[in-house]
Amino acid sequence: MIKKSLAVSALFLGCLGASTAGAETLKFAFQGTLNQLDPYSLNETFTLGALSNAYEGLTRRDENLQIQPALAESWEVVEPNRWRFHLRKGVKFHNGNDFTAADVAFSADRVRSEGSDLGTRINAEVKVEIVDDYTVDFVLPGPNPILHYEWDTWYIMDKEWTEANNAVKVTSASDTTPNFAALNVNGTGPFKVASHEPGVKTVYEKNEGWWDTPTHNLTTVEFTPIGSDATRVAALLSGELDMVYPIPVQDVKRVNDNAGTMALTGPELRTIFLGMDQMRDELLYSDVKGKNPFKDARVRKAFYQAIDIEGIKRKVMRDLSTPSAIMISPFLFSRSGEFERYPYDPEAAKALLAEAGYADGFTVSMDCPNDRYVNDEAICQATAAMLARIGVKVDLIAQPKAKYFAKVLASGGYDTSFYLLGWTPGSFDSWNILENLTQCRDEAGKGGAFNLGGYCNKEVDALKDQILVENDPEKRDDLIAQAFTILHNDVSHIPLHQQGLAWGVSDGVTLAQRADNQFQFRFVTKN
Amino acid sequence: MPNVTNEEAKAEVPVFANPADTPSKGALARALDSDIFHSFLKSKVTVVAALGTIILFLLAFLAPWIAPHDPFDLSTISIMDARVPPVWMEYADPRFLLGTDDQGRDLLSGIFYGMRISLIVGFCSVIAAAILGITLGLVAGYVGGRTDAIIMRIADIQLTFPAILIALLIDGATRGIFGALDREVFSFYILIFSLALSFWVQYARTVRGSTMVEKNKEYVQAARVIGIPAPIIMLRHILPNVTGPVLVIATINLALAIVTEATLSFLGVGMPPTQPSLGTLIAIGNDFLYSGEWWIAIFPGLALALLVLNVNLLGDWLRDALNPKLR
Amino acid sequence: MLGFAIRRLAQAIIVMIVVALLAFTLFRFVGDPVNQMVGIETSIEEREALRERLGLNDPIPVQFARFIKSAAQFDFGTSYQFRQPVSDLFLKRIPATLELSFMSALFALAVGIPMGIYAGLNRESWVSKLFLSVSLIGISLPTFFIGILLIFLFSVTLQWLPSFGRGEVVQVGSWWTTGLLTVSGIKALILPSITLGLYQMTLIMRLIRAEMLEVIRTDYIKFARARGLPNRLVHFRHALKNTLVPVITITGLQLGSIIAFATITETVFQWPGMGLMFLQAVQNVDIPIMSAYLLLTAFLFVSINFIVDILYYLIDPRLRVERA
């Protein structure tokens, strides 16, 4: 089909430049922009993923997200509080500088400095000690079994290059002069950044001197941001691009039916859930006055059981979602199979509402982003319609993420009664959920800062503290399971599903679709 | 690009020489004159357009009584009915003549109700813009001097804010100041306010121009000499002589307001999806064009095109009919 | 004359300052920029510190004074998203927008004028009625929808034209880039230019038609005909010439609004111009870019208005009397 239409277009308008370029050039588009190149400036999946092709950490994760050695060849816990990393020898940065322990120590300082958005990668109290050129020790204030879980996105920078270019300070938006590190890259990774025009185009070239044996066959990669869903899909269907992501779930079939393209789908790690204000004595946006219906677990459970999750899966997500009973993806917690959702049952939901004293239902406003998660607004609309059937009238406030987050997060004073949110634990670990989403908080947000509804159960918090320092994996999982059981019984939140990933790929391109939605060129081959 | 500057308005209303010099008889009265009525009947296109407009208006305003479903009543719609194709296609459901949208709302009912919202938004914003524009235009043209300069510079400021931007800013600002009010009522007023704010300049400039010509005419001078107060002169004597061009701008603007509202929906600051206008329906359907569910965007698109076309054809006729040079 | 020019210039400057103030006040409410600048796990304390460093906690008058002071030196600050000076970003994006605007104006003129002449000369013919009705479709469908339909037809189905971007661009001089020198660049211009120019085309066509209808009824045209001059000569030498003055005025003024309102077209076609950057800035609450964009369009409108006023003053003696 592509070949045929190429012939046709050649007749009319000459060659279609885009798809006849060298076979090893990969052209791809993503919905968002790569704003700047400083690896510590923004803790966001796409930015970190795009930079992972040029920068590397001490560790990296493979196609299945398993931790692998990268710039560190191996590591060991020499004492409970002392981790020793043995660095890879003979690794060179793109500019030819050698990679040594000094670079690791420098990067550890920089990632924790003011203005860094990745400060959580290493606790401020961790001391970094250079043992020799290729050995580094990390001295911790206390045991931490998941110290290195996020280090695949803590990229090592070249001390000499960064200092020479006056870029030791992390690029911050309050800078008045452009930071060198925001516009240039000097990593150790498989690709160099040949040119970068923010918001327009970024070109990568193969790094011939990479320490690892390349499994890809690319020489050049061109990235263009395309914000409009329809345009992005069109660019793939017309053969102008080799790969685009994400593609809207409704277009998966079209991309598959089109000769020459196919859709790759898989589960993502992000869990989408609904939360309810359980902290205020009276809801901000409701016709119930003088009390807060969400403080009653029966009301929360009624909401839960009113939601037809299979309907949402089939009709809104087009089967590209995995309904979930807990707040974490089954890929990140091995015992999640033990949990089961409360069944969809509008009659039971009505009965629960009546029991709680709201036989006629009530009115509540719902906050929802409309450009953040897959079909976020459509999910909220469907939820509103389902709740209408048990007598609850939902006023839906769906807005762009800039306004949505400004309203519902701590900075907006948790200005919401009922909301939809998505969460991927950065460390791929349950503790992150218990720390951020379910921990008790005060009105200013001290504690579980993203526990927008202010759910609070001291038992869960006690378990969380135990989980942090428990080194035995089995015991640890047991504690996590206990915490999730309490959350489930309390109906602290209403977990909906893990949304699906959908990437569009041209025939002839093979790649690895990682569940964290990072696109790494080293897994790509094109012929 | 649904944003008309004053120059376009001037263009669309080429040198509107005051249709008659008899001040006793207003333009509205003249419009019902047999002359114009005759030209109306003579033009088949116009008769068809007028009929089409009436039918569409009736469908829109009678929506609650004639639409098969109520798309605003959430308890009657089910997500399981989402994206059902029109009845003549496979997998159709006889309940939904033109199919359903992504939330399972009947599209035909959605179009009726959507047209109603689009028309209400259109009419309200046109009326608001006209009142604002005519008042300021009359004052600027009649009083002149510093007042004129200030009003015209305000018009300049306004022109630098396209309707889209005004809506974005006002939407954000009102919410920032008053907090989140009832979204469904609120967006409606924001829309009307934004559209009115971006359209008033055309009326003001046109009316100002005509007023400047008119105020030097003998009858106005005479009225002034015998001591009739300025507001009365403006309302009773000058206003009737500028209604022609205002009517023409209004018809064009009605269509433009409806299209602009659609664009704003695309940007997410139009009517909320729970109360879709025609534009919102198109913006929703836009996402489903490639997936083969074309009816969600195409049917509302056709309805919108039909509506705007009819209103514009009427406007065309009105412009020619009211222009004495073409009689 | 000089006095008038100075007075108008002073007014123009006041307009600019008011636009800046309005924009600045309203931007406060578009959203919280800090949320867009950090990852979701960033702590509240760090967010607060960043807000402090950016000066977002200062009173609005202080922030505004700071903004005006640097804007007067063409320094619009650093973009929150891109961490680059806003003026650099705009310099890179301006050629794309200007080229698109110019091409769409060209399209509007090249198609609109002939259609308008025909419709004006043959008022009753069904072809001119067809022109009038069909051209209305251009303004009865929203721009974004027209763009998507064009992409669907010409990029996806026929695969003739690209769906996004500028194609291959060539650097001309130190900061100008053009797509007019490469095949892919020209092909990339076609769909966005049509989408953006459709509205202007309709407008110009109707304008020319209306002017033609009036002019051919004037005495001197009747006189020219009476003298036995061939129809073609009368139509093009005498009639068209008289309709062109308002057309040129309006096209010039329209160019300003094309540039300013190209935002939607640029978004649909991922055209790397200022409009696209502006809409992205709104989504990400990038206040420096929003302010700069608004000031730039304000500047464009104000200067065009200013020039037009001066021209009218020079051409129309009646105005001169009245102002004096």
Secondary structure: elements and pairs:
The complex is a heterotrimer of chains A (527), B (327) and C (324).
Chain A: H1 2-13, H2 17-20, E1 25-30, H3 45-51, E2 59-61, E3 67-69, E4 72-79, E5 82-87, H4 101-111, E6 127-132, E7 135-139, H5 159-164, H6 180-183, E8 191-197, E9 201-206, E10 220-225, H7 229-237, E11 243-245, H8 252-257, E12 261-276, H9 297-306, H10 309-316, E13 321-323, H11 346-355, E14 363-369, H12 376-388, E15 393-399, H13 401-408, E16 418-423, H14 430-436, H15 458-469, H16 473-490, E17 494-506, E18 509-510, E19 525-526
Parallel strand pairs in A: 1-10, 1-11, 14-15
Antiparallel strand pairs in A: 2-3, 4-5, 5-7, 6-7, 8-9, 9-10, 11-17, 12-16, 12-17, 13-17, 18-19
Helix pairs in contact in A: 9-11, 15-16
Chain B: H1 6-12, H2 27-31, H3 34-42, H4 44-61, H5 63-66, H6 107-143, H7 145-159, H8 163-178, H9 183-214, H10 218-225, H11 230-266, H12 278-286, H13 295-322
Helix pairs in contact in B: 1-9, 4-6, 4-13, 6-7, 6-9, 6-11, 6-12, 6-13, 7-9, 8-9, 9-11, 11-12, 11-13, 12-13
Chain C: H1 2-27, H2 33-37, H3 44-53, H4 60-71, H5 86-121, H6 126-140, H7 143-157, E1 170-172, E2 176-178, H8 183-215, H9 219-226, H10 231-260, H11 263-268, H12 274-283, H13 287-315, H14 317-323
Antiparallel strand pairs in C: 1-2
Helix pairs in contact in C: 1-13, 5-6, 5-8, 5-10, 6-8, 7-8, 8-10, 10-13, 12-13
DSSP strand tally of chain A: 19
Helix content of chain B: 55-70%
* Overall 3D form of chain B: elongated
Structural class of chain A: alpha+beta
**Uncertain stretches of chain A:** 1-22
Reading the helices and strands of chain B in chain order gives: HHHHHHHHHHHHH
Describe this entry's structure for a reader.
The complex is a heterotrimer of chains A (527), B (327) and C (324). Chain A has helices at 2-13, 17-20, 45-51, 101-111, 159-164, 180-183, 229-237, 252-257, 297-306, 309-316, 346-355, 376-388, 401-408, 430-436, 458-469, 473-490, and strands spanning 25-30, 59-61, 67-69, 72-79, 82-87, 127-132, 135-139, 191-197, 201-206, 220-225, 243-245, 261-276, 321-323, 363-369, 393-399, 418-423, 494-506, 509-510, 525-526. In chain A, α9 runs antiparallel to α11 and α15 (458-469) packs antiparallel against α16. Chain A has 527 residues and is α+β, with helices and mostly antiparallel strands. Chain B has 327 residues and is an all-alpha fold. Chain C has 324 residues and is an all-alpha fold. Chain C has one domain (86-323): MetI-like (MetI-like fold, Orthogonal Bundle), CATH 1.10.3720.10. Helix content of chain C is 75%, strand content 2%. In chain C, α1 (2-27) packs antiparallel against α13, α5 (86-121) packs across α8 and α6 (126-140) packs across α8 (183-215). Chain C is globular and about 85 Å long. At the A-C interface, α1, α7 and α13 of A face α2, α3, α5, α7 and α8 of C.
